[in-house]
Amino acid sequence: MYLYDQYDQAMVDARVEEFRDQARRRLEGKLTEDQFKPLRLMNGLYLQLHAYMLRVAIPYGTLNSRQMHALADIADKYDRGYGHFTTRQNIQYNWIKLEDAADILADLAKVEMHAIQTSGNCIRNISSDHFAGAAADEVTDPRPYAELLRQWSSFHPEFSYLPRKFKIAVIASDHDRAAMRLHDIGIQIVERDGELGAKFYVGGGMGRTPMIAPCIREFVPLDQMVTYAEACLRVYNRQGRRDNKYKARIKILVHEMGAEEYAAAVEKEYEKLTEHPLDRVLEELERVRTFFEDPLFEQNAPETIDRSDPDFALWVDRNTVAHKAPGYVSAVISLKPVGGIPGDATSEQMRLMADLAKDYSFDELRVMHTQNIVLPHVRMADLHALWTALDEAGLGSPNLDTVEDIIACPGLDYCSLANARSIPVAQKISQRFAASGKTEALGQLKLKISGCINACGHHHAGHVGILGVDRKGVENYQLLLGGSEAEDVSLAKITGPGFDEEGIVDAVETAADVYLRERQDGERFLDTYRRIGMNPFKEALYG
Amino acid sequence: MADLSSDPARLNLIRYRDDKPVDHGAVTVDAFLDQSNASAVRIEPGDDARELIPHLERLALVEVNFPAFGDGRGYSSAQILREAGYEGELRAVGDVLVDQVAYMRRCGFDAFDPDSALDADDLEAALNRWPEVYQKAADGRTPIWSKRHA
After folding, report:
1. Does the beta-carbon distance from A7 to B148 stay under 8 Å?
2. Which of A130, A322, A329, A480 could form a disulfide with A368 if both were Cys (CB 3.0 to 4.6 A apart)?
3. What letter does residue B5 receive in the DSSP assignment?
4. Which pTM value belongs to this model?
């Protein structure tokens, strides 16, 4: 795990003092709300429907038990005893007072955490593969590259007032577990002729105009990765649209210019920037890499699991993932209990997860973009003890990647942008499928719900997506089918007219039944949809 | 030509340079490219700063206008000019606020002419805020990566 040195600590501490001073000037009336807004946003502070929301960065989703304990303490001290893990591997608190914000940032700085650039029109927290360092299929651990970009993008003087927010994801596997091509920049670390380099995808995104990022360069040498990113950003900062907030993301620029022309503009800028080479990039990369070396895995760790308890066996089958080290797995802690709020965890649950990480996973946890928590390195021999502790705390739901494992945005229960509630729909769907017993039969079915067109709940990328809209003052829900955020990335399509709150739950079940009827050997919901197309679903839904 | 010392529009001017300020007003980029005698030019957010690069030697002042502080194109304009070797005055004008001046300094601005005067204490605090920097930028400060591996 990356640890701060005196430089990183000095920067985070300075940021706390800067924000404390800005908040004071705001409260004294020296800053107008318009002037203060981008400053608080760049410190993670949003004004929501009922209170301020604070979004804390969890760089590339990796944290240790001490940090998770600190997050729990903040939930108790400044909020209502819980937090919400987000689709960009962060955590947010929903009931924050402006007067407390600087103190919270100071508490975070004590455990090498911050809320820097978790909002605002700047480069956001860098996300990555939640199984990094554990997955058998990666060419290297992507997190050192993400950390390099974290440092480079923090307090970037040229790119802090971009046309719009800017999100970067870094992976290092052909299996995309980070929705990489739905980011403003998606970087895949690849190997070519024995050498590592960065493959750049630019201009993806969800929101009201979803786009899949095209590849604009196959291979950037590692010592040039940051410079190339700088060129991508400079072209965007100069040429991205600022006349219309809804056309200001880089995906619109890339789309309007065309990927080839955008790539050519980046190459030109890159050529100029290489005349001013960055210093010590490879040395810094080497330094950062040492923080992500493998923990001391036990040699010959036993690979047998006592499956005599069927509940435990089901959890093992559903919620553990193959690991590169023999005798180990990555274990997913579901934050999707049936009828619960997706991604929420109480301070008690956070503390338990922290302690279990310390006992069973080399003191490391990960936040998934699907709003669950991973213990990345667990001995198979420890799984039963781990599961027992989780199950007692309501954290043992065996539903990874099932229809119950729903991504949902906060929706109209919290968010001032939302048109409809997301949480109650998620709750009803998980209850419906758990009660009918179909969850297991359906297998992998990724369901994603957004309460407005901004798509924070990733509905475009759901095998089944739900979009809440406002229809003449009434919440209405559109159904979408066929999206994927993975390496087989695709954008979901709307089935037809929307449904009311009860109707959308029925509609999801109807679509699921079409799949159960039509599927062939080994097909997931998404595979069947891709084979048979929209029509059989439409017929069942609208007759 | 306007005399700067008596120009009410220049009351808020702050310079971090020792040379004398240019004593005449800045012209638009189009006007500058059309006339050979101007030595001061004003860049609007949509202008391409690179058009000035062939003429840097006769420029003593480049004003970069920020009609709204949230429009960050001027930061790139400044960086580009400094990267191209421009050493004259680079002045941020318009909606220039104290919470943006530290980044502006990093991008190479060495003068500010804000619409509203900046509070002197707040300005000093802002410019002394950052003990270190992560990035290489036009101000030439040594970035953390270079210090770590010196």
Report:
1. yes
2. A130
3. G
4. 0.96
